[in-house]
Structure formats: C-alpha cells, structure tokens
Amino acid sequence: MNKTKIKIALPKGRLLGDTAALLSRAGWGLDGYDEQTRFYHIESKTISQLSGRVFHEKDIPIQVAIGNYDLGICGSDWIEELLAKYPSSALMKVEDLKYGEGALYAASAVGKATVEALRARRETIRIASEYPNLAEFFAINARLKHFSVFPLWGGAEVYPPESADLALVGGTTEDFPPYGLMPISQVLSISAFLIANRESWKAKELNKMIAPIEQALMPEKAATPLKREKRQATKNRYAASEKDVVRLALPDGHQQAPTQKLLEKAGIRLDDYPSRKGNRRPKINLDSVSVKVIRPQDMPPQVANDNFDLAITGRDWLTEHLCQFPSSPVKELADLKLGRVKVVAVVSLELDINDIRDLSESEQALPIRVASEYINIADRYARDNRLNRYRLIPTWGASEAFLPEDADLLIENTQTGRTLAQHNLKIIDTLFESTACLIGSNRQAASPDKKERMESVTQTLRRAAEEIS
Amino acid sequence: MKIQRSKGTRDLSPQDMVSFRLIESAFRDCCLKWGYQEVRTPTLEYLHLFTATGTLTPSMLSKVYSFLDWDGWSGERVVLRPDGTIPISRLYIDSMAKEKLAKLFYVANIFMFEATGKKSRERWQGGAELIGAKPPLADIELVMLALEVLRELKIEDIELRLSHAGLIKTLLARLALSAEEQVGMFDRILDGDTKALEKLKLKRPELEKTIDSLLALKGKPSGFSKELQKIFAEDLPECKPYIENCTRIAEFLEAMGYDYRIDIASGRGFEYYTGMIFQIFKDEEKIGGGGRYDALIPLMGGKDVPASGFALYLERLMALIKPKALSTPQPPRILVRAEVAMAREGFDIAGRLHKAGYRAECYLGAQKEADFDWTVDIKEKSPKFIVTNQSKKKFEAQTADELLALLKK
Is A224 inside any structural domain? Predict the structure, then answer.
C-alpha cells in the first residue's frame, strides 16, 4: 500500500451537504465534515494516508493548482475562472460529480441589451463579476469592441443597469434570474467537479484512490430547464440619471449592524437595512440621496469609476485599492471610528521567525507563500521588505487556517489577536490600523447642489461618529 | 536558489545579435531605398485597440498578455503589443492622417502566450505598411520589397503563396451559414485549420465541385487566372472583382519572373485582411507574409483609407542566414596594452585609433592576442610603442603619429 499522504480540499457552503454525502457513500471516513463542521482540518478514519481541509469554494482550484492539495471538490465555475487565465496550470478536471448544478450567465437589466447590440457598440461596456477572467473570456468571444471588467467580491446582480451594463452571475435553475435581470447569454453550465493536481495525479496514482467516488455517484437527474419568464423592467428607486442625486453605497454583511447604528445616531433612517429579504436598494429619508448595498471590498473601485459618490467601507479596503492603483481618485472623507482592527503580518509559532527581516534574510529553497485577502497590500509589503522570492495566494476568508501548511506568511486583519493565537500563530508586524470610513473621490461634483448635499452627509456622519466614540 | 529565465523567453547571445543586426540592417536598407520611413510604437497599448476592430479571432485575443496598469482602476486593460500592424494604423490615425500616402516600417517585438513555453512568447518582426495606396501596384511593391530583403540576405529557394481574403469570405457567404457560423468558419481558417473548407463540402454538396477546384488550385501558377474565372463564372459570379484583382497581381508577378503558387485555403494569422494575401515559405516554414487590409483603418475610427503591408519573422530568418557570407569587411582590430604608469596614454591611443577608423580596445587582463590583428604595447622607456602583428613580427614607433603611419602601411 502506498503510504504517501494525500490531501483533499473540501468545499464549505452550498456544495457541503452533497459532497459530505458522496464521500460518506464512498467510505472515505471524513467524520466531522458535515453541515455543523467547526473544524478546518479533518483526518480520515478509514484511510490513514488521507486528510482534508475545508475551504471557501473559490480557494480550492488555486490550492490544488499550486500543489498544496492533491485533490479538491468545487464548482466548475471556479475551475474555469482559473483556467480561463491560466490554461497551462497544473489543474486537471477528473470527474463531473453531477450535483450543485447551475449556470453562469451574462445578464443585463431587463430589456436593456442583446449580444448583437453590444457587439455593435463602440462605447465601453462595463461588466461586473466575481468571475473577472470568465468575464473577459465572454467579452472576447462575443467580440465586444471595448469593454472594462470590474472584479467583484459579491453582489454582482445589483450592478446593472446603473453601475454596469452587464453582470456575469451564477445561479441554479430555481433562483435564476435574480429580480430585474435577464440572461442574454449562457457562459457555462456549472456542476461540482472532482479536480486533481496533475503532478500528484501521476506521482501518487490517485486514479486508484478515487474509484470508490466514481462508484458512489448518484444516478443522473433530469435537468430542470431554466425558467425564462418575461419580466417587466423594474422601476428603480435608485435614479442615477438625475445629476443632483447623491449615490451612497452601504456595506452588506457583518458591517451592517454597526453602520445602521451610526446612521441612526446621525438621524438617517432606511426602510429596509439590514434587509432580511436581501433587498439591496433600501429607501432613505434624505432627499435626493439614493442607496445601494454592496460589498465593502468593492466600494473603492466603484467610487473611482463614478458609480457612487459616497461609500462606507473600511480603510483596509481603501488601502488595498490604492496599493493597486496609486493614481485612483478615491480618498477618505471621514473616519467613522467603527470596527477598529489592525492589519498584521502573521507567521506560524512553529517557525523561528520573530520579525519580517528574519523572513527576508532566511535561506529559502522554495518561494515564500504569502496568503491574504488583501493581495495588493500583501504584494507591496513583500516588495517593501525585500522578500527574496515570493508567491501570492489570494484567499477568500478564514485565512488564519492557511498557516503553516498552505502558506508561510499571512497578511490579515485582527481585532484582539485571539483567533490568531488559537491557531498557533504569532504577529510579527503591524502594517496599519483600520476603521470604517466614508470615502469619496477627487472628482468635481456635477452641480453645486450636489456638492452641498455630499458635504452635509459627510458632516452628519462625522459628527455621529464623534458622538459614538 | 537558482535564478531562472522567465518561461517562454529567449536570450540573444552576441552571435545571435550579429545575425539579428544583419537581418535588421538588410531590412532597413531595403525599406529606406523604397522610400519607407521607420517608426516605433510603444510596447504597451490598450487592449481595446485590438478588440475594437472586431477582426482578431477570440483564440488569438485569449493569448495576449493583458493586465491592469497602475492606473487601471477603470478596468481598462493594457497589453504587451500582440501585433505589428494595428499599432501602426493607430499611429497613422493619431498623427499622420493628413498624409495621402504613408510608407512606414518598423522592427518590433510582439508578445503572445504559448502554453508549452517551448516556443518563444516574445517574437521579433520587421514590417512595412503602405497606407493610402490601392491595389494592385501597392501589393506588388510590397511583395517585391519582401523578396528583395530575402535576396539581400541570400535566402534562396523560397516559395511565394497567394490567396485572397475576399474569395474566402464570398465562398463562406454562399454556404448559407448563419452569421455566427460564418464568423466561426473564417476564424478557423484564420487559426490555421486548413481542413475547415474541406469539411464544408459535406454541408453543401452542390458546391463540392467549386470547393474542390479551389483547394486543387494549390501549386498551379500558370493559367491560374483562366481556371479561376471558369470556376467562378458559373458558381460564384460575385467573386469576379476579386479574381480580376488576383489575376492582375499574378500576371504582374509572372511577367517580372517571380514564382508563386495559389493556396486559397490557408489564411493563418490574417485576421484583418480584405484583399490579396501573400505568404512566404522556406522549407514549409512560414518566414513572412502580408496582404491588403482596407477595412482596418476605418474600423478603428480613421478615414476610409486603403492599406496593405507585410512582416518578416526575424527569429526564423536568423536560423536561415549564414552571417559570414553576409558580413562586410570590418576594420582591423587592435589590442592596446599599456604599462601601469602609461594607462592614461593607453586610453588616449585607443581613442586616436578609433578616430582613424580602427577597432581598438585597452588590455583588461583577459583578452587574447590571437583575437586581434595587431597588439600595441606602450612603454615608459623608448621605444615607446611596439606593434606586434599576427605572425609575431614586431615594429617600433616613438610617437603616436609614427604609430598611425606604421599601421597604415
């Protein structure tokens, strides 16, 4: 029996249930990998050489391609996103697992566009997506003449028509299309796939290993056709065409509660924020101000591109944007003093490294793997500290679990440092402190009225922040 | 840690550069003699320059090196130049649009991803573009220019293949394919799928005879025009102007004693071509090609200006030339070896020798006498200069003037 260790990257989120069931049918004994899982590392009870780790789906193709993991299971959308840009990577698709089915669509606002009409257009076509590589692939194959891709962290469906002409959005047959969107072209169909690292596949004879999975696959289900009901164009409250309207972006996710508290303190009320129904266009009690709820990570580029005038995000994401694009017109207008975190450089306690100089001076046989959600901050930090040869690994959450196996250095935010300590990690450097802030751009406001309104919102929020702190 | 060369790139060694410069100067000389002016465009261009015309195939565009620049927050991507002609057209529209005739040439590197990394991802080409001139004279001039360069480089037994983008497109138009299919089929021909046209026969049996005759036209230089006319007069009368155009060019080339053959189905790498296409092969390897691209400049937002051009692939030519046979005689090479106290004098003498037309360098501790025509030793004591030739014969001189006079003899 081959005793080589075999590592598999397992998805959390929408594919977790079906994946856990499949692996259990196949007798892989990965106990603890289930809906209640609190662990990131899982050892197999039945196959001694096998272990797994749970990742955000989006991380899995990268982890397998760079060889941190031999096998992985994730949606084909994330596999194709990697292969669209890196066709010669060491990633190979092994088996269509035939669950988690859906499709990725290029969609516009209802009644707004067709592929033919877009092909004829000479002006820039803005495409917003969590899948920037596939978005470029789509644009090139549709022979669009002039396009820009906005990479997003999420919420692409809320961008058309004001903030983008097209969104590349994934969906299952039941929930697609999101309200107000119409698919104009299917980019690819999605299902869960078993993937492998090409070198491991050969060296470790993985084909023998996966035979039980192939046997445990469920019989094929008949595909449900996509509903293509006609929809009325929604009358958006968000009226970007009026040049005096101030367009404000508010954060989704866990920043909603503190933001809502701040707004309340400032006397600003919203009808549905945070929204239980996932409403991303709440109404606000300020005249000529419109609101959209998007990911805080996506706000700086959106403000830079004049899709929003004001946005509440974190200084970490503003810094990340400015590290990538130093000439961007985005700037901080007010420190809102909420959600104070430190952005820190972190290594494993197991390493004899106490300071970033120890790492840059250490003799490395392999490139130093730098993992971070803040890929441009991490890049600049590695460069400024003269790390000899390094490789960036983008991550999407739970980055602390990457060390020590899957990365050597982590650039991460932390409030108290407790989570980091629990993972046997130590902070070797603090890059900067981050709080929530209001951002805007250097661009001239479209009218004196609008300028005044923006200044008033800024003042109100600044005062409320002072009072709370 | 081993420092490595980036995958898919190559270094040009001193020997390689000798070959490279020989080709470059032959190309430059020929272009200048024909009245072309040299230009250089930036390595970085916006991606949309190459997508805007809608003519490059998706498979070609998916291999460009595109990325977000430091000020790319608008999502506007830049690329490492993947093509030579489109930037020249942009330059023409940008700053030369008032000129009725622009004859431009360039030597530039172009970048295209190649998955195995075995072939180079950076390639050099010498190209000439003739903007504002109509067929057939302009096309013939370009063919002659390209062949003249190859003759200067003493590359013999080359093969000239002609095709016509209009013919290929008309044929596809007649096949009652959907617009999408037509684009796809043309793309496949452009991507080098020579079987694409053959497969079409199965779809439209009634055109089988035409397609067969077209494909069979390969390698039949004489009588080409009559045969073509016969085929198309019956089946595809709308091809008449293209055939007349082809015929005139072919007749011209024939009259001037150039060998060529027709190869309608091969159009690899000619995305934006609208008229005559020519390709140059040596031992079944393509070493250059070009053609007419009348629609490109208007598609890029310029005026309706006819244009054609070609490029020669420098790396391929480098493998074909014999540098020794091409080099012009070089002036004698002299090693100047000065005693420590005379070091300044050594550099002065080297400078005077350069002015007198010699190649001269100071001794740095490692040069071998055998590599030089003469060695000049400079001493503190008389005789100040001792000249040694390759057969070890020694001559003496007291002053720099005497030394120069001695070398002249």
Answer: no
Same structural domain, A195 and A180 = no
How many structural domains compose chain B? Answer: 2
One domain for residues A63 and A195: yes
Closest chain B residue to the Cα of A84, Cα to Cα? B62
Cβ of residue A442 closer than 8 Å to a chain B Cβ: no
Which among B51, B52, B70 has CB closest to A140? B51
Q: Report, as an integer, the average pLDDT of B5-29.
A: 95
Asked if B73 and A328 come within 8 Å (Cβ–Cβ), the reply is yes
- Tokens at residue A37, please? 């899982």
Output the CA torsion sign for B93, B96, B98, B101: negative
CA–CA min distance B115, chain A (Å) = 6
Q: What is the DSSP letter of B176?
A: T
How far is Cα B262 from Cα B266, in angstroms, rounded to an integer? 10
Distance CA B276, CA B270 (A): 11
Question: Do B367 and B266 lie in a common domain?
Answer: no
ipTM > 0.85 for the complex = no
Domain assignment of residue A212, given as a range: 6-100+191-216
Q: Which residues of A touch B272 (CB under 8 A)?
A: none
Question: What does the buried/exposed string (b/e) look like for A51-84 if buried means 16 or more CB atoms within 10 Å of the residue's CB?
Answer: bbbbbbbbbbbbbbbbebbbbbbbbbbbbbbbbb
Among residues B6, B289, B298, B323, which one has the least CA distance to residue B132? B298
Beta carbons within 8 Å of B330's beta carbon, 6+ residues apart: B359
Is the Cβ of A88 closer than 8 Å to some Cβ of chain B?
yes
Length of chain A (residues): 469
Stated as kind and residue range, the H or E segment containing A36 is none
A406's tokens: 């899957």
B120 touching chain A per CB within 8 A: no
Q: State the count of interchain CB pairs (< 8 A) between A and B.
A: 70
Q: What is the pLDDT of residues A214-271, one digit of tens each?
A: 888 866 555 444 444 444 444 444 444 477 899 999 999 888 999 999 999 999 999 9
Residues B105 and B166 in one domain: yes
Per-residue confidence (pLDDT) for residue A3, from 0 to 100: 62
Phi-psi region of B301 (alpha: psi -120 to 50; beta: other; left: phi over 0): left
Please report whether residue A331 resides in a domain: yes
Look at residue B206 in the predicted model and tell me its pLDDT: 66
Of B8, B135, B182, B147, the closest CA to residue B80 belongs to: B8
User: Residue B355 is part of which domain span?
Assistant: 333-408
The distance of B178 to chain A (nearest Cα, Å) reads 13
